[in-house]
Amino acid sequence: MTRFGRSSGTTMNDVAAAAGVSQATVSLVLNGAAGTRFSEETRRRVHDAAHELGYRTNAHAKVLRDGVAGMIGFVGDFVATAPFAGKIIEGAQSRAWEAGLLLLTVNTGGDKALEAASLETMLSYKVAGVVYAAMYHRVLEVPDVLAEVPAVVLNSRDGSGRFPSIAPEEELGGYTATKRMLDAGHRRIAMINIGAVDSGLPAASGRYAGYLRALEEAGVHPEPGLHRIGDGHESGGFDNALALMSDPQPPTAIFCANDRTAWGTYQALAQLGLSIPHDVSLVGFDNQETLAPHLRPGLTTLELPFLEMGRRAIEVLLAGGERDGGNTEYFECPLVERHSVAAPLKVTSSH
Amino acid sequence: MTRFGRSSGTTMNDVAAAAGVSQATVSLVLNGAAGTRFSEETRRRVHDAAHELGYRTNAHAKVLRDGVAGMIGFVGDFVATAPFAGKIIEGAQSRAWEAGLLLLTVNTGGDKALEAASLETMLSYKVAGVVYAAMYHRVLEVPDVLAEVPAVVLNSRDGSGRFPSIAPEEELGGYTATKRMLDAGHRRIAMINIGAVDSGLPAASGRYAGYLRALEEAGVHPEPGLHRIGDGHESGGFDNALALMSDPQPPTAIFCANDRTAWGTYQALAQLGLSIPHDVSLVGFDNQETLAPHLRPGLTTLELPFLEMGRRAIEVLLAGGERDGGNTEYFECPLVERHSVAAPLKVTSSH
User: Quick check: helix, strand or coil at residue A30?
Assistant: First the structure.
């Protein structure tokens, strides 16, 4: 007997009707056997309908019967407390719970003793696996103790090559962002980076490499003066945008390597009396839900697919953590189109 | 034997020297026996020094010896995934770890079956207590099972009056915000609320009550047309600010009941060509770290003391959860002064 109630009377047919799909689709999606056979939208619709109707999978029925759920440990540095990466937890949490497992999260704040105690405790409680996650993409030293369970490195890469890792596809994102502005007709495209290319940040080096590839593919010679190093904060965007626009030949478009940098750029352009997108076009990176859609005009940006990456980490664990391989699975960052890119104004060259 | 290393050689004297306080102060602060004898700043300095020097308290030494830490459960609706409330977890986490306890967090996303399974599992693992937290301040129905352990309701109030609760002092915050603008010389002060006063949101009703009290105390008759109902989002601030400023006698100051509403108001005023603070003064609420300091000019606002509230929740649990009382402890929201308030321009009345 458990303290919490019985399964609801909702059937798989009810979920299928509400989601507008077949019962077979519901079964495949909810039992995690669908792979990529269905679109993300279909899968989302099925999960939403199941959630709204209170439908319980077999995994949930087992939890309800046994009273105690299996656990997956989630150890993050600042994932739970940083304002941006919550969707990683949301994705991992929802996928774990679909399998009838609880996601127990510890936010270590970078404290190595706390991290060690957390892992030790999780292992002693026989977690089914551990997600080792970072707030931003980097190369991590992963604690040896993780070799004792299925483990996966999330939003970073395991430097030792022992564990499967899941990370965003930075280079392709930088390429896509830059190509969007090239396709709109821009040729003088600046980039405000979030760190130096040699700083060890895959986001800084990867997005810059993609920027260069897109320019070169379009036959545009990259000018070193148009690549500026910010710090990933709003003020880094503000200061660098002011500097770029004071150039005798200012850019007509700017790739801001994250959304906070783009926000600072919006504020600098407003101060200069320049409009977006007509005077200057912008593309950001991250698709921060609290920022990108609320800028005026809405920011065209690349999405960090945190929800999907979080879900995928759990799937890797459920498949046994692919214990024999330390390969990295890269997730494409899709372009989210809003209103910050337009064709350039006709420019009279000053030469 | 445990897998993670030995205690460092740092002594309490080292911490005292680094923090610039006496050894007795370090001892009282780190053992949680200091109460409110020392300022928050002193306590912060001691904790920072201990953290930087890798100093281990007795509680940490015990964890290191035993290998497995005691646990406190933290069940939140969206606290870990919402972009704003992470400091609640940060505060609870750091206070728990000072006592040698791990904070295990489950983010339920509002799913009641997941919540029940989480609590059941936490209880079966003999957690020392449970923090039951909400993303925003409201009156909660708390699950009965929490009566079996020390429990505390965080950032909300227990509707049944059984459990100790910790919540922000909304009315005083609204009063302080409004008084700041009155003291600067404003008389025509609008408020853009984050919901209807009767919506059941303590933040909406409380902050409005404080606004009214400050006006009445200053002998200013509150005009119903100056109180507008937004939705807590940027667009609610934008639309309502445009409407307010189209009044034949627009306000000279606006109390925005949260920072996101203030952000929308900044965008509306910019569109109208009005400057902050010279044309219109603003005060926000929340002190969102990713927003308030980065607006131009920086937003004067009230801080939700999430770090302190999170720490206090753990202290209540460590004291046994005050099992016999369901009182609510209210935390004052301090004014954070930046640059969005100035004296009003001399106005020529249109009457």
Answer: helix
B110: closest chain A residue by CA? A51
Q: 3-class SS at A94? A: helix
Do the domain assignments include residue A7? no
Query: What CATH number does the domain containing B239 carry?
Result: 3.40.50.2300
Task: Tell me if B84 is assigned to some domain.
Answer: no
As a whole number, mean pLDDT of residues A261-284 equals 97
Q: Quick one: DSSP state of residue A174?
A: H
Tens-digit pLDDT profile for residues B46-61: 878 887 787 766 666 6
Q: Can you give the residue range of the structural domain that contains A288?
A: 170-303
Rounded-to-integer distance, Cα A286 and Cα A273, Å: 26
CB atoms within 10 A of CB B70: 19
- Inter-residue contact A310 to A85 (CB < 8 Å): no
Q: In this complex, is the C-beta atom of B332 within 8 Å of any C-beta atom belonging to chain A?
A: no
The interface predicted TM-score (ipTM) is 0.80
Per-residue pLDDT for A347 more than 80?
no
Domain final position from B68, B96, B113 = B68
User: Are B105 and A109 a contacting pair at CB < 8 A?
Assistant: no
**pTM of the complete model:** 0.82
Same domain, A268 and A142: no
Of all residues in chain A, the one with the smallest CA distance to B56 is A113
Does B56 contact A at CB distance below 8 Å?
Answer: yes
**Ranges of chain B whose pLDDT falls below 50:** 1-8, 348-351
Lowest mean pLDDT among A74-83, A114-123, B99-108: A74-83
> Nearest by CB to B107, which of A81, A89, A294?
A89
A263 and A174 within one domain: yes
Contacts of B5 in chain A (CB under 8 A): 116
Q: For A105, which of B56, B83, B105 is closest by C-beta distance?
A: B105
Nearest C-alpha in B relative to A290 = B83
Q: In terms of residues, how long is chain A?
A: 351
The answer to whether position A257 is within a domain reads yes
Q: Does A94 touch chain B (CB under 8 A)?
A: yes
| Total structural domains within chain A | 2
